């Protein structure tokens, strides 16, 4: 992995994701490109042409000024952490944030997008109809969503929550390559909704773990968890096992909204500090 893309709106949560990205980049010897998106103000069609043109030019000038100011600040942060020369650039993109970030990821050969989630809601923003959720579902590269209160302390343990998709082993090989420089433990986890499903799921998960062990030198563990709420089960295991990153395979548009809907789930995700890494097939 060589290229990381970090969207920023210059907010504290975006800065936290950038600091998190610096921690990853330093270990992977990767480059970071930052990106800021903006949309021009909607103008009254009755406004004089010259006035409208001045408003647009002023907005673009202001965006350029803020971009240059932020780039200096981000480079200073990187220098203080001993990560020199990062970010390589801060792209200024005009248009819809999800569309433009996905386009930038493709054009820059991005291996992973690392983005912050807003406020104390943490992963609630990711799972319930946010730009982060749209990014996880639309980006073709992996996306790491970092809650504002998450702190980078290395990647000692990463959990992959499997639903026994045919693409699991392919995704797990990519995951193992990502965390190999950290010598991370990989925890394969499956949430069962009833006790009678546990035996079959446990055997299937063990087989998946054994297949992965052949392909990596990292430590691999497997665990089935009984919980009637998938996300609560995921986060409970993450807390118990001291997981640094939760990872999973997202399937299609609306995947997260449909998967996690209960009020108990929404309450639980507000309390998490664990970043979520999403892969697409």
Task: Give an account of the 3D structure.
- It is a single chain.
- By secondary structure, the protein is an alpha/beta fold.
- The chain is built from 10 helices and 10 strands.
- A 10-stranded mixed beta sheet has the order 3-2-1-4-5-10-9-6-7-8, with helices on both faces.
- Helix 7 links the parallel strand 7 (185-192) and strand 8.
- Helix 3 runs parallel beside helix 5 (131-138) and helix 8 (230-241) packs parallel to helix 10.
- The two termini are 18 Å apart.
- Residues 260-270 have low confidence and may be disordered.
* Structure class: alpha/beta
- Main sheet makeup: 10 strands, mixed
Indicate the low-confidence ranges by residue numbers: 260-270
Query: Using only CA atoms, what is the Rg?
Result: 20 Å
As a percent range, the share of strand residues is 15-25%
DSSP helix fraction:
40-55%
Strand/helix succession: EHEHEHEHHEEHEHEHEHHE
Give the overall average pLDDT: 84
**Major beta sheet, strand line-up:** 3-2-1-4-5-10-9-6-7-8
Number of helices: 10
Molecular shape: elongated
Please provide the count of β strands: 10
End-to-end distance, in Å? 18 Å
Summary tags:
single chain, alpha/beta, 20% strand, 281 residues
Furnish the topology, listing elements before pairings.
Blueprint lengths: L2 E5 L4 H17 L2 E8 L10 H32 L8 E6 L2 H11 L4 E5 L7 H4 L3 H8 L4 E4 L10 E5 L6 H12 L5 E8 L5 H18 L4 E7 L3 H12 L3 E5 L5 H5 L3 H7 L6 E4 L2
Parallel strand pairs: 1-2, 1-4, 2-3, 4-5, 6-7, 6-9, 7-8, 9-10
Antiparallel strand pairs: 5-10
Helix pairs in contact: 3-5, 6-7, 8-10
